[in-house]
């Protein structure tokens, strides 16, 4: 069959097996044959992506960025076309996006140690997982952002303080007592809030006859008790089984009478409370180092020192170097200008060698600037960190004030990680009442790896202070103390400008420390001669040299400076304890010129170069012109009223030897080492803020230590001006040779400290208080107290529980009544011995009842009363048994057990007095007020002097005197009569010997005595209602119970001393926390709220400033008004807030009154700060202010710090407008001479 050929239509151009290849983007194509595709033709291909290259952004993105990001591009007249919302694709699962949980474990490969072959893997827990600065105090947490590495952040946790133990489980439970107590075992909710039904967690009830469940079988097994279990109950206990080997009951003992049974049952007397064992020596954290002799083989011990001085180090410096090379912390106590800075220099160099960092802290900002210049010239790699200046923060040595370091510690700065040494200069500044707490906070908060160098002036308790630091940080401190001066001092008196005494300096204390009374009396005679001549010339009623006027002061100073200039003893530092007197003395020397023409040129060039940075009006300030004129004559002034820039000019010129006479206040003594040839004291009296007083030995030593230049002077000269009368010799001796002021704690609680510690829940304010220097004397015996508490617990366990049933059921209340009665009577006897009427009643001849360990309710006759007290002693003739060698009863056998001494009611009521069993004896005792149990109304007519003479030691065979025998027989008769007289009166009056009533008879009416007398009467009346005293076992049981109670009281006292309840500042802490809770800064559970976080950022007036911020008081004010408000803190609205906070503090129990709290906010510089913020020149500000220029500068500088803190707080609370306003206010006041850069940093 022939196939037919089917004619197909020709293919179209799209059906041909051809493909187009696009070459590049220029529109060139090639035709390629290929197999047909799904559509009949091969797919087209290209060498590049299709479309034009992306030479411009897409138009959609451009429109979104242009119109949506910049609304001003939208057409203002066609706003209805603007879109109000944009559609987006909902993504519900995005709500559940969580950060991945850190992996808490990992796999560790185990390999063969020889071949390295893999044996397997072991799972192990990874430490420090999920740690950050927001939740951990560990040094192993990762570092924070770079911007927070230097100063940290207010939201960071501090690092764990060194020496502070991790909190125990008991402490954690005690800390969580304030939180809600949730019972996870019962009363749990089964229905969620808002739902009608919940989940029934009760187990199903088994149906009788149904299948048994495993839980019911296990419950049945738990009900069985195996035989032989000694813990079963009594006969009535259903769990007690009768078979299975239970031990039979002990057989009953038979006796004919109860007394026989009691005699057979011998009751051992209770053991006495264990005596405290000898305490081991106290743990020593301070190691004194002898620095009296140089180290012989110093070069061999330190062959490659980290730092070399241009001079041979002193012995104490050599010892310090050895301690630093050994990695020890140390305390160096030495005189001013002795060379303590050399120790700091070596520590800085050692840290550079170890590639670690050092922080050098100083008490004042000016000293930080000076140290920055000195250390920068020595090491180069030095940074400075103050409130408004931050230079080279990455340097290996950072210099800052102690307040800056405290802020870094609380904010968790990462600089602390690399820290090896912290150097505390002038650490004796811890005695400062206002700022001393900062040193204690920093020392407590420093981490464990940081080593300490404490530089201090000579203090008498350096070892005690080092012991506290070492115990707090759990690190031994080496203590190097030296009283040797590199330049010895000679102290003189200068009496005036008379022709005879003008050139005389009266030696008072030589270079070897010998006080010269001859020089003192010579000065007194010269002063008297001058005074008498003055009176003869001007008359007796004219003012004498006892008082000094401006003219006389000028004459004395001109005469003294002339003498010193002739002797070559310039330059001079004249310490004057008044800023106004400094200026007056300098102005009074108008005709005195102490510098040469060449020195004048150097002074002028240096001064012009220093003030060239100031604006024109600031260069013409009255203080600038006046100081320039004084410096041209070699005279300088240095006190807090001088502008900071001018003070630095004076310091630099003085260090160059161009200032010959410097009138300064005592703040100059705290600066860097700027010694002079001579130091002059204008007076030895100063005003300390409260009243006038003489200089303390430590203050005198600090200032006089500026005399004597090392390497230039063989001795330094110290002169005391006697413009008035010569001071008393005792005052001078005490000031020059007395003991310096001890280092004393100034620790106090502040709201900032409390809030910063509450932020980190692991740190407790109680731990900070416990480790303060104020608590150290009370806590140094804590290890011994803990050992003693453990011993008492063991003794209590060995003593056993006393009988508490039957006739002994009321033994505990009887013991409490006995102890209360004894305490009340003891108080009454002490009040008697302290009162006039009581001493009149306790005169010789009075019969008293004596109760001591040797005498129990024995009558005594007072023969003599000590004239002085307290406590007074009463020499008393006491009735007792006659000794065996004088015919008395034989003593008990040594192995016979002592009968327990139990107080019966008749003994306590003094109705049963002591009567000798044989012949009456007597003893002469010296009694304390507490040894007298009662004062009877009976007196005997005796001759006390004759009795005392007859009672003197005599031979054994000699009989007692007639007076003694008669007195003893009368006491015995009174005791027998009182005992036969019956029960006597209630309250302690024997039947025949009534007692004197302290309140009614002796008229002691103070509340404490009246209350004690009422308590004694009540307790004495209740003694007859107790049944335990009628039991034959009462003496043994009472002795055992009393011994146990004594141990319990001792243990409770030790536990109190070891607990937080004994902290001195604990009541104030609770009061301040109550204030914070009332303001809403701290929650009931202890969490810090937003207000508390704001207050923790502020360094002063935390509560008032926080209330102003939260009350939005600063929002409607302009920047200049805001800064004026912050400066005065005394406007009406601020005063209202301060009154509210002060009243709240008083309601919570704080001692500060509302008036005292409000008075700290003053109006002083409101107008000055307001005009300064508006741009007024400083020359006009100086005329406007009522204080000196330096005080205005300090106020504005502190105000700028407050603005920065408020700006940071505003950012935290989410107020960008307020933050911008504070920044603008800060920029307004931060200008011109007030914020001129320090010359030391240039």
Automatic annotation (TrEMBL):
Domain Helicase C-terminal: 590-758
Biased composition (Pro residues): 268-279, 886-903
Residue ranges occupied by any Helicase ATP-binding domain in the UniProt entry: 321-477
InterPro entries per the UniProt record, alphabetical: Beta-barrel_MTR4, DEAD/DEAH_box_helicase_dom, Helicase_ATP-bd, Helicase_C-like, MTR4-like_stalk, P-loop_NTPase, RNA-DNA_Helicase, SKI2-like
Location, primary (coarse class): cytoplasm
Keywords: ATP-binding, Cytoplasm, Helicase, Hydrolase, Nucleotide-binding, RNA-binding
Regions of compositional bias (Gly residues) in chain numbering: 229-246
Gene Ontology terms for molecular function: ATP binding; hydrolase activity; RNA binding; RNA helicase activity
GO cellular component: cytoplasm
Catalytic reactions on record: ATP + H2O = ADP + phosphate + H(+)
Keyword Hydrolase among record annotations: yes
Chain residue ranges for the region called Disordered: 34-53, 173-202, 225-254, 266-286, 881-905
Subcellular location: Cytoplasm
KW Iron (keyword) present: no
Pfam families membership: DEAD, DSHCT, Helicase_C, MTR4-like_stalk, MTR4_beta-barrel, Ski2_N
This protein's name: Helicase SKI2W
Organism of origin: Grus japonensis
Upper lineage: Eukaryota, Metazoa, Chordata, Craniata, Vertebrata
């Amino acid at each position: 069959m022939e196939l037919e050929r089917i004619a197909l239509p020709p293919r179209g151009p799209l059906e041909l097996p051809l493909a187009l290849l696009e070459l590049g983007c220029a529109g060139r194509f090639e035709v390629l044959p290929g197999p047909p595709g799904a559509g009949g033709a091969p797919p087209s291909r290209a060498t590049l992506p299709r479309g034009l290259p992306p030479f411009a952004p897409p138009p959609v993105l451009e429109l979104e960025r242009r119109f949506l990001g910049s609304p001003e591009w939208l057409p203002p007249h066609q706003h209805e076309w603007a879109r109000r919302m944009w559609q987006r694709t909902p993504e519900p699962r995005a709500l559940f996006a969580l950060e991945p949980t850190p992996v808490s474990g990992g796999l560790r490969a185990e390999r063969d140690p020889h071949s390295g072959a893999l044996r397997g893997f072991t799972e192990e827990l990874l430490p420090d997982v999920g740690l950050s600065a927001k939740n951990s105090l560990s040094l192993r947490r990762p570092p924070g952002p770079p911007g927070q590495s230097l100063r940290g952040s207010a939201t960071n946790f501090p690092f764990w303080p060194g020496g502070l133990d991790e909190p125990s489980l008991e402490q954690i439970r005690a800390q969580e007592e304030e939180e809600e107590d949730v019972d996870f075992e019962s009363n749990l909710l089964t229905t969620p809030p808002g739902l009608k039904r919940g989940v029934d967690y009760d187990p199903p009830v088994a149906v009788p006859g149904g299948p048994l469940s495993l839980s019911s079988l296990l419950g049945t097994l738990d009900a069985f008790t195996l035989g032989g279990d000694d813990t079963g109950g009594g006969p009535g206990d259903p769990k007690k089984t009768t078979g299975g080997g239970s031990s039979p009951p002990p057989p009953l003992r038979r006796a004919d009478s109860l007394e026989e049974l009691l005699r057979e049952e011998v009751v051992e007397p209770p053991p006495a409370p264990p005596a405290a064992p000898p305490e081991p020596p106290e743990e020593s954290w301070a190691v004194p180092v002898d620095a009296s002799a140089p180290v012989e083989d110093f070069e061999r011990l330190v062959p490659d020192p980290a730092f070399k001085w241009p001079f041979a180090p002193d012995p104490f410096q050599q010892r310090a170097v050895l301690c630093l090379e050994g990695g020890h912390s140390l305390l160096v106590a030495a005189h001013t200008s002795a060379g303590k800075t050399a120790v700091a220099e070596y520590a800085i160099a050692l840290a550079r060698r170890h590639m670690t960092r050092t922080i050098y802290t100083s008490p004042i900002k000016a000293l930080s600037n000076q140290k920055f210049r000195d250390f920068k010239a020595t090491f180069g790699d030095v940074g400075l960190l103050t409130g408004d200046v931050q230079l080279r923060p990455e340097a290996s040595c950072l210099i800052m004030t102690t307040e800056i370091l405290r802020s870094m510690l609380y904010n968790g700065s990462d600089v602390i990680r690399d820290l090896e040494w912290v150097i505390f200069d002038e650490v004796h500044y811890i005695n400062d009442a206002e700022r001393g707490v900062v040193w204690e906070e920093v020392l407590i908060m420093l981490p464990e790896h940081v080593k300490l160098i404490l530089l201090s002036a000579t203090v008498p308790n350096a070892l005690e202070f080092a012991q506290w630091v070492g115990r707090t940080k759990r690190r031994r401190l080496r203590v190097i103390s030296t009283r040797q001066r590199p330049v010895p001092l000679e102290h003189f008196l200068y009496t005036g400008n008379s022709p005879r005494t003008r050139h005389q300096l009266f030696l008072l204390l030589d270079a070897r420390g010998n006080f010269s009374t001859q020089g003192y009396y010579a000065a007194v005679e010269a002063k008297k001669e001058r005074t008498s001549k003055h009176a003869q010339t001007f008359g007796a009623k004219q003012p004498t040299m006892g008082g000094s006027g401006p003219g006389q002061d000028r004459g004395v100073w001109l005469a003294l400076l002339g003498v010193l200039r002739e002797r070559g003893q310039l330059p001079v530092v004249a310490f004057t304890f008044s800023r106004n007197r400094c200026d007056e003395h300098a102005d009074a020397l108008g005709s005195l010129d102490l510098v040469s023409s060449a020195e004048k040129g150097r002074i002028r060039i240096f001064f012009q170069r220093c003030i060239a940075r100031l604006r024109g009006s600031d260069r013409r300030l009255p203080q600038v012109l006046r100081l320039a004129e004084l410096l041209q004559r070699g005279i300088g002034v240095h006190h807090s009223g001088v502008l900071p820039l001018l003070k630095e000019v004076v310091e630099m010129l003085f260090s160059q030897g161009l200032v010959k006479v410097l009138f300064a206040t005592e703040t100059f003594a705290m600066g860097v080492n700027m010694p002079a040839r001579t130091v002059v004291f204008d007076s030895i009296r100063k005003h300390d803020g409260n009243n006038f007083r003489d200089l303390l030995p430590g203050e005198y030593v600090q200032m006089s230590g500026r005399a004597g230049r090392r390497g230039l002077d063989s001795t330094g000269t110290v002169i005391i001006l006697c413009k008035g009368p010569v001071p008393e010799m005792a005052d001078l001796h005490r000031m020059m040779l007395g003991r310096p002021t001890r280092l004393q704690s100034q620790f106090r609680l502040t709201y900032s400290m409390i809030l910063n510690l509450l932020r980190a829940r692991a740190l407790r304010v109680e731990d900070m208080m416990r480790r303060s220097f104020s608590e150290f004397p009370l806590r140094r015996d804590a290890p011994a107290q803990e050992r003693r508490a453990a011993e008492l617990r063991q003794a209590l366990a060995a003593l056993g529980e006393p009988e508490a049933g039957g006739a002994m059921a009321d033994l505990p209340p009887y013991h409490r009544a006995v102890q209360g009665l004894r305490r009340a009577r003891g108080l009454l006897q002490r009040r008697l011995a302290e009162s006039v009427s009581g001493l009149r009643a306790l005169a010789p001849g009075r019969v008293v009842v004596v109760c001591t360990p040797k005498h129990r309710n024995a009558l005594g006759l007072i023969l003599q009363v000590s004239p002085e007290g307290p406590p007074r002693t009463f020499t008393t003739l006491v009735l007792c048994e006659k000794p065996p060698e004088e015919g008395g009863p034989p003593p008990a056998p040594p192995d016979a057990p002592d009968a327990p001494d139990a107080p019966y009611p008749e003994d306590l009521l003094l109705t049963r007095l002591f009567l000798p069993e044989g012949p009456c004896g007597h003893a002469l005792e010296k009694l304390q007020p507490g040894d007298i149990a009662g004062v009877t109304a009976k007196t005997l007519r005796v001759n006390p002097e004759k009795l005392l003479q007859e009672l003197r030691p005599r031979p054994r065979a000699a009989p007692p005197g007639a007076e003694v025998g008669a007195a003893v027989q009368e006491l015995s008769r009174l005791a027998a009569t009182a005992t036969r007289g019956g029960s006597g009166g209630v309250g302690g009056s024997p039947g025949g010997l009534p007692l004197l009533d302290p309140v009614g008879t002796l008229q002691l009416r103070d509340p404490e005595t009246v209350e004690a007398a009422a308590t004694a009467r009540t307790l004495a009346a209740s003694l007859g209602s107790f049944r335990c005293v009628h039991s034959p076992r009462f003496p043994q049981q009472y002795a055992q119970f009393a011994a146990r109670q004594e141990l319990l009281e001792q243990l409770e006292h030790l536990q109190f001393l070891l607990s937080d309840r004994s902290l001195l500042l604990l009541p104030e802490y609770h009061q301040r926390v109550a204030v914070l809770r009332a303001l809403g800064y701290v929650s009931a559970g202890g969490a810090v709220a937003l207000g508390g976080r704001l207050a923790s950022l502020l360094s002063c007036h935390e509560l008032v400033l926080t209330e102003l911020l939260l009350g939005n008081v600063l929002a409607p004010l302009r920047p200049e008004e805001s800064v004026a408000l912050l400066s005065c803190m005394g406007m009406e609205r601020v005063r209202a807030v301060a009154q509210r906070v002060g009243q709240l503090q008083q309601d919570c129990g704080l001692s500060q009154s509302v008036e005292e709290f409000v008075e700290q906010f003053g109006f002083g510089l409101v107008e000055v700060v307001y005009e300064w913020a508006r741009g007024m020149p400083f020359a006009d500000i100086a005329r406007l202010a009522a204080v000196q220029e330096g005080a205005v500068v300090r106020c504005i500088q502190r105000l700028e710090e407050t603005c920065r803190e408020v700006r940071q707080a505003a950012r935290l609370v989410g107020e960008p407008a307020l933050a911008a306003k504070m920044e603008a206010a800060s920029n307004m006041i931060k200008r011109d001479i007030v914020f001129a850069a320090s010359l030391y940093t240039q």
